[in-house]
Every structure is written in structure tokens, then in C-alpha cells.
Specification:
Elements (H helix, E strand, L loop, with lengths): L1 H23 L8 H14 L1 H8 L5 H10 L1 E3 H21 L4 H20 L1 E3 L5
Parallel strand pairs: 1-2
Helix pairs in contact: 1-2, 2-3, 2-4, 5-6
Length: 128
Amino acid sequence: MKKTVVRFALLSLGWICVVIGAVALVVPVLPTTPFLLVAAACFARSSDRFYGWLIHHNWFGPFIRNYREKGGMTRGQKAVALGTFWPAVLVSAVFAPAVPWIRLVLVLCAVGVTTYLLTLKTVPDEMK
């Protein structure tokens, strides 16, 4: 009984993370890779079928494989992440309430994310 509950919880969390990761592909401020890594970890512990599907998926697979196997992101993945992230941050800063500390926190978070992405290992593109 306990194994069934744990398996259901892991599958549920995995699918929630896949959905959020899919949304993150088109929403600039939302990171894709962390959600897909959590989904992969959940599926690895609960369903070989879903784990295999996720890591071999045409869209999601490369994010997971590059990060887990090679410890980084491709130059293209970084460019897309930063190229969509910064315009979203700038728009948010413009429309944020006129409270200086909110804008400061937004910019500091953006600098932190950018620093992390730029210092993350750049891996070669997968061969198709």
C-alpha cells in the first residue's frame, strides 16, 4: 500500500513538473531545465516507461541529457534562455510598482540567473 502511494505521488509530481516545463518553453521567466530534471528524477523512481519517454523526447530530452550527462547546456540553449529572459525582466521592471526595492530585487535575481547560466559548462550540440 505504501509503495503504491509513493509511486502515485512521484508520478503526479513528475507530470506536474513536465507540464510546468512545457509551459516554461514559451514563458521566458520560467526555467525549463529544473522542472524537467525533477520530473526525470520522479519518473526514474516510479516508472521506467515515463522516464524513457522523457529522456528520449525530442523537445525535453536534450535539456535533461545535457545537464545530467554533461553537466551543462548548449550555447544555443543558453542564448535562447538569456534572449527571452532579459526582455521579460526589463518589461517586468518597467511595469513593477514604483517601489525601488522591488526593482532592485528583480535586477539582482536577473544578474544571479545570468551569472549562473554564463558560468554553467557549455556542452556541444547533440548530433541528430
